[in-house]
Write a structure and sequence with these properties.
Distance between the termini of chain A: 44 Å
Oligomer: homodimer
Strand content of chain A: 5-15%
CATH topology of the largest domain in chain A: BirA Bifunctional Protein, domain 2
Structural class of chain A: alpha+beta
CATH class of the largest domain in chain A: Alpha Beta
Helix content of chain A: 40-55%
């Protein structure tokens, strides 16, 4: 937008503010309210300052969401005479006002508003309102007569976010539908929660990652943050609604101010697909079903070979205990172990010793365990391990793993599961089994290979709901989260490499005409087809070219066209064209719906209805 | 959370920050980077100041998202010696730092970090890290030993928002699926955009309502706001992607800091369902299809009788012109007319005269037009109207309406359309046809009647996309938005009144057992059914009671149960129970999948498969 236009818009905005404030002043006058408690700044009294401070404890600015005339007037007049240390909020306001640069301050309007606002006489206010409204309209009329001039700022989506175009949406919807189908097959219900939560709800749940939370601006009222995951909102929901049993899925976007790596599907706004089972049940029964759900989803999506690693937080604790790590260092040692998927053991060992204060001998003992992985035989061997068998926690963890692996065998997914002592998972809130699905082979896209790695993860968290309950009442939970963004990015890369094709609409019939002046006839035919529930399109141009219309059908994989011609219509006939085979058949116009339905049924059976 | 606990957490956080910064300093040392360009504040040089200013142009604070030790150290040392007018961003940072209150500053850590950070010797840093890590662990261990104390804040969703429980989600998904089906029937593609936009994108689009926009906190980086509707993001998307033709739907939540009236479906977070057609097409052809889409949706949802009011912005302009309103008062007079759905004419007239500066005679002339409504005959009568026929704009508007009504007749929706001269629509950006769907009868729920009113609205906006294009290139658009929250609230009220029932899951088969120790057998059967694609559940308890299991089926409308018994299993048989009829039949275990499928097919045909 041109500079002059921007200034004009700014003036209009300010003039509009002025008019609104005058009206508000008038209204306040009429209601007999005193508006001058905040405004009469020329004679500063102790009372006024306290009043301003009180007002500012609830609002960032005096008159609205951004510095208003009133703010500016007070700011200009209050000077430095005030002992701001006495007024905490006033002080904050004052410094915020001071933070505007000279060039910004020059844009502040000149009108001496407060002297107007406190006129007792409404008649004078009315005159003033009319006067200012006139100025506003004069400004607006300038805007109308100048043609809208484009804006200057860079046109982009916020960092780490993106739009989904129709092709990307088609992929996304297809993946999500498949995931939802599996969730529903296991009887999960669906819930949704607001995109933001009270900031307090998120506080203290994510450890070091809390710095990645998006906060909303304090615009007066509650302090809010965007959700960081779907697990904490679930726990808040269960505690708030006093629900002790729920099998739910939740598919929604979450927000993290992380460094985005968008080509690898790492965004600041991204989808999570969560499946969780809350309730007091028997050991490992719901836990094993979560694994079954993950295998069904990954099989259904068919994006490559994978392995489901499992471990147990209690076993990790027992292992640390057995290796001689003091209890107060379990969690922090655990977060070192969690780095084993990215760093070699030597680095992890150094971190343990230098940063976590683990003794070198203890670290070496840990090193012998975390290279182990296998099946039920490993768990049974470890149950007889000299050191581990002395730890109650280790035994509990190992017995849990053995039971889990047994149930996985019953579920027919034993070959996908790997008991892996190096799996630790970052989040603090896990209390039992933990799992992570990893693609074992890079995915070939064109001539390139894309390493995807971790694609789902989860575990048991029995203490999170209790953190929200006033009586600390616990609801045990176990769940899993599917990392769909990585799946989207693989499929989008395949699309870009020409290895797959998607339909972005589902239109079955296009109503076309070869001759001019058939718009109304097309509309009638469309109406008949729409009213019969048939997905139909036509051109929005009066006299489109035949070639353009048929090209549209080919581009969009529309299988059938109804072609209108004058001579056929006179005989009460229309043509149905198969776009792929280019065959045309005449059918009676009055039987069009039946004829179209018959052909669509046939195409669907044959499976050549588009992609 | 207890006060002491809060302080402890604060300390842990600060100590953690310190440790992280020490590690970062060490890493920077190792990479040979000079970290002292920002930090060596004790000898301030011109170069340093410029460097800090450059750094702050990209980040709000020097070391992170909140004032860090480094910020504080610089703040304490830099004093007022600096000529801040030379450093715009540095100045802003400085005043932001000053805005912290005394009590907040007291909480700032005492460690003189910078003097540490620039130690050349990594060994010293290592010692320091170990020292600080110890302190951190000591603090954390205090936290672990105290039992988790429940938090004190009120457990609620943010003002004007709500959770959707499974029943509400079932309703919501059902309504949205029906709406999407209609959108798809008309060939619409789907897009999605981020939940937030650069604040600049939203600025200047919503007039007075801009104050209702949710802003995100400035945490360094871009200044963001939550989307206010789906129309402006669409325009931004079209301009940014240089798309000149698109028929798209977009269903997503939008955010307005309005005063919520939640019982009537007015929230701060709410769904919009938008259908828009962008592109240069022939007059009224896409416009009429939008109306067709609305009628199909409202018929499909079947929530009551409705009327679709239409009018034309050009006709309104021409009418104001003909009545003697000056051109610069058209928009503001229009916004008075917009209030006619809620206020009587007398009030609107007074506003026009007193606030908008319309002459009383002109207002009276307007009053004679805005009571008019009807069909094509009214438009044709007005075309011959003495005053209107002199206005080019009025003729253009009326001819548009006549064409629109003709197309609506071809679409078979003439009886739903009402040409209404009082319809004005609030938003500034409309340039042509405008429409609004209104339920004409209150909805009966139990013994109460709920007035719903406006349920969809839209119009043509030909200039919005150009506002985002650097060359001001226009993409004409027309669209409609379905007010689904009001539909949800009606249906939820019906649900609460017991007038409807919804299924919150789709489970077809429940695997139950009458005797103990059948968990593993149930799991095997479940696996067979799941792997055959049958929606199946069982109890997560080892030995659930038969009555509880059957009750679960009845509560959740699950039609079939597979009942396992020892004696049957020995004979290779299982029982299938119809939950409604309570009939049981024995079938061979090995044929279970086929037998279940056969029964489900029968139930689906008969239409008694749940609700």
């Amino acid at each position: 937008m041109a500079e002059s236009q921007e200034i004009l818009l700014q003036k209009i905005k300010e003039q509009g503010d002025l008019v609104r404030k005058l009206k508000a002043a008038k209204e306040a006058n009429e209601k007999g309210k005193k508006t001058d408690s905040i405004g009469s700044v020329k004679a500063v009294k102790e009372y006024d300052l306290r009043e301003i401070d009180r007002h500012l404890s609830q609002y960032s600015y005096i008159c609205g969401y951004m510095p208003s005339n009133c703010d500016i007037e007070i700011y200009k007049n209050i000077g430095t005479k005030v002992d701001f240390e006495k007024y905490k909020y006033f002080k904050r306001w004052w410094y915020h006002m001071r933070s505007f640069s000279d060039s910004e301050i020059k844009l502040f309007p000149k009108n001496s508003l407060p002297s107007i606002m406190y006129k007792e006489n409404n008649k004078l206010l009315d005159d003033q309102i009319q006067e200012e409204v006139k100025k506003l309209l004069a400004l607006k009329s300038q805007l109308v007569t100048e043609d809208a001039v484009p804006q200057k700022f860079t046109l982009k989506t916020p960092k780490g976010t993106r739009d989904y175009n129709p092709q990307q949406m088609a992929i996304r919807n297809d993946v999500l539908q498949k995931i939802i189908a599996v969730f529903k097959k296991h009887g999960a219900e669906c819930i949704d929660t607001p995109v933001f939560e009270l900031k307090d709800v998120l506080t203290g749940k994510y450890g070091e990652d809390s710095k990645l939370i998006y906060d909303l601006k304090d615009q007066g009222g509650e302090i809010l943050s965007l959700r960081y995951d779907l697990t904490v909102p679930l726990a808040r929901y269960l505690a708030m609604s006093k629900i002790t049993m729920l099998k739910r899925y939740h598919i929604a976007k979450v927000y993290r101010r992380d460094n985005p790596a968008m080509t690898r599907g790492r965004y600041r706004e991204f989808y999570q697909c969560d499946f969780d089972i809350a309730g007091q049940y028997d050991l490992m029964v719901p836990d094993a079903e979560c694994l079954k759900v993950v295998t069904e989803i990954l099989n259904f999506l068919d994006i490559g070979k994978y392995v489901l690693k499992v471990n147990h937080r209690r076993l990790l604790d027992g292992m640390f205990e057995a290796c001689g790590v003091p209890a107060d260092k379990f969690r922090t040692t655990c977060s070192s172990v969690d780095k084993l998927d990215k760093s070699p053991w030597e680095e992890v060992r150094t971190e343990m010793i230098n940063e976590k204060g683990v003794m070198p001998e203890a670290a070496d003992r840990i090193g012998k365990y975390v290279i182990m992985n296998g099946g039920v035989e490993l768990a049974e061997k470890l149950l007889k391990d000299e050191k581990l068998s002395n730890s109650k926690a280790a035994i509990e963890g190992l017995e849990g793993i053995i039971l889990l692996l047994k149930y996985c065998e019953l579920f027919g997914i034993k070959d996908k599961i790997l008991f892996d002592l190096s799996l630790a998972r970052g989040l603090d809130y896990y209390t039992g089994v933990i799992y992570e699905a990893v693609l074992t082979e890079p995915i070939k896209i064109g001539n390139e290979e894309q390493t995807v790695g971790s694609i789902a993860g989860g575990g048991r968290y029995d203490n999170l709901v209790g953190m929200f309950d006033s009586k600390n009442k616990q609801v045990p939970c176990v769940g899993v989260s599917i990392g769909v963004e990585r799946i989207f990015s693989v499929l989008e890369a395949k699309l870009a490499a020409g290895e797959m094709r998607v339909r972005t609409n589902e239109v079955d019939v296009y109503v076309a005409s070869a001759q001019k002046n058939f718009l109304e006839e097309r509309m009638k035919i469309c109406t008949e087809l729409w009213d019969a529930g048939i997905k139909t399109e036509h051109s929005y141009k009066k006299n489109p070219k035949m070639l353009t219309q048929l090209q549209h059908c080919e581009d969009n994989c529309i299988p059938l066209a109804v072609v209108l011609g004058e001579s056929e219509l006179k005989r009460g006939m229309v043509k149905i064209r198969n776009i792929v085979s280019r065959q045309e058949e005449e059918v009676p116009r009055e039987k069009l719906v039946d004829e179209v339905n018959a052909r669509l049924a046939l195409l669907n059976t044959k499976g050549i209805n588009g992609v």
